[in-house]
Amino acid sequence: MGLMHVFEIIGTVAFAISGAMVGISKEMDLFGTIFLAITTAVGGGVFRDLIIGITPPTAFVNPYFCVISIVSALIVFIFYNKLNKLNNIIQISDAIGLGAFTAIGCNVAINHNFTGTFIIVSLGLFTGVGGGILRDVFAQEIPFVFTKEIYAVASILGAITLIYARKIFDGYTASYICFFTTFIIRVLSIKCGLHLPKVRSEKEKSKFTL
Amino acid sequence: MGLMHVFEIIGTVAFAISGAMVGISKEMDLFGTIFLAITTAVGGGVFRDLIIGITPPTAFVNPYFCVISIVSALIVFIFYNKLNKLNNIIQISDAIGLGAFTAIGCNVAINHNFTGTFIIVSLGLFTGVGGGILRDVFAQEIPFVFTKEIYAVASILGAITLIYARKIFDGYTASYICFFTTFIIRVLSIKCGLHLPKVRSEKEKSKFTL
Amino acid sequence: MGLMHVFEIIGTVAFAISGAMVGISKEMDLFGTIFLAITTAVGGGVFRDLIIGITPPTAFVNPYFCVISIVSALIVFIFYNKLNKLNNIIQISDAIGLGAFTAIGCNVAINHNFTGTFIIVSLGLFTGVGGGILRDVFAQEIPFVFTKEIYAVASILGAITLIYARKIFDGYTASYICFFTTFIIRVLSIKCGLHLPKVRSEKEKSKFTL
Lengths: 210, 210, 210
Fold this sequence. Notes:
3 copies of one chain form a homotrimer.
Chain A: H1 2-25, H2 30-51, H3 58-61, H4 64-79, H5 87-111, H6 117-138, H7 144-147, H8 152-165, H9 171-191
């Protein structure tokens, strides 16, 4: 899985960068920034592994992607004030990560002999968006993925595509179809400003309480 | 467990509705709203299963309750502005869910041969209130269960009742005693406006910092 | 491990007190206050156990430290308005807890035959700071450990020291070296007001969004 591995690294760097930038914008210190970068990059995979009983999760056994995250965070920490210009590159890299992580999450499920559509899609989704959710919880924000643009839906559609593609193609090809489906939907949603529907409240926003 | 299954479904619907309503009130989009509904409905059970090593958690293997949650969320999404009138029904259904989930959580613990009071009560409690805690964390609110009314305490008392009831009755009967204990305490606390004590600060609210 | 056990109890009390005080300052009720105390005291250990597949986590099987946490929370609840004077004692106890929990977390990893530096340090760190992170997430604060002073770094340095000390000394001695390293770094950072670096933004604090 040569090319997919490259995508995974690009995605890890992009996720780590987004974690580090959120950390810095929330006035976290060097440790907080690095921790948030690691959490964003590997948090989804850790959650996925716990769900299916892989203990310790891969990220702890093989800290390869944690090291990538730490280096990425350090670079962001040093060059923070110059990174705004790279916003486009970061968004594209993030979309690459979303696609690669989704494909990898689905494959982990399949390699562990799970056959249900629901669990395969769930594990693809968690791997893709779990780290970002944790990032936002730690940064005291409502998770981005719950409020804006087509993000999780790109991951879900990519995962469903993978399941169907495997009925026609080999697993290797299906992974790339999943990757490109997720990636393209995500990039299109950014370029075209696509959003999922929201409810418009009739009255002033009345907060629901139990 | 025929009737308890009905209670479980009612509870799932009520929990999913509360998740969806919180999501919408926080301006989440369709995905966020559905995700929060699922989290509220099955999150406690997922956490309970992870605690005792059931991987993958039941909710992922059998997405039955997730589907119920999704349908509930969609209905809330469409009819949001008419649901305020149903506040009473939602509160009663939520109390039914709290009772059913508590009884189920305790039974899962007992069926896995745990005998300690602490772990049985903990698993009943987590199943009952865990989803709501996750809902509030994702919605950027201090968990409701930590601040208002008799909610967790109803679940704890129900769970303790179950343990003692099993010494006299069969497991089936004990489950219903647990259910009704939790349900009645919860409903009474709403009707009578009962709250747990809080500390009144002498000075102005001084925020504690380490 | 006689003395370390004493340190563990002191640390549990200190962590529970910090959880209870944060809970009260956030206007949580008695249940919320106790729950936050328990979470702060045992949450890190629970997460550590889940990571390495110890299910159910020790804290659920043996509720010894939960009981200590509950008693500590009750005392805080009753004497809250008199505790501000004890701030110094609480800080020192907290540092004792950080040291003891770090050493214990590393030893759990080693006793489960993990040999990698990364996972040993991670488990020491999670045991030391995980409860405090959960406390702050539930209290709707950006985790303290991400923003202020030398806290996590003390734990990390202590854990690294333990790994190297074990190459020279027995495990018992190495645990104490880890404990004192963590403790002293933490106390020095409080006394000297040491902080990790943060990024100073050139422009006004511009919030990063994906």
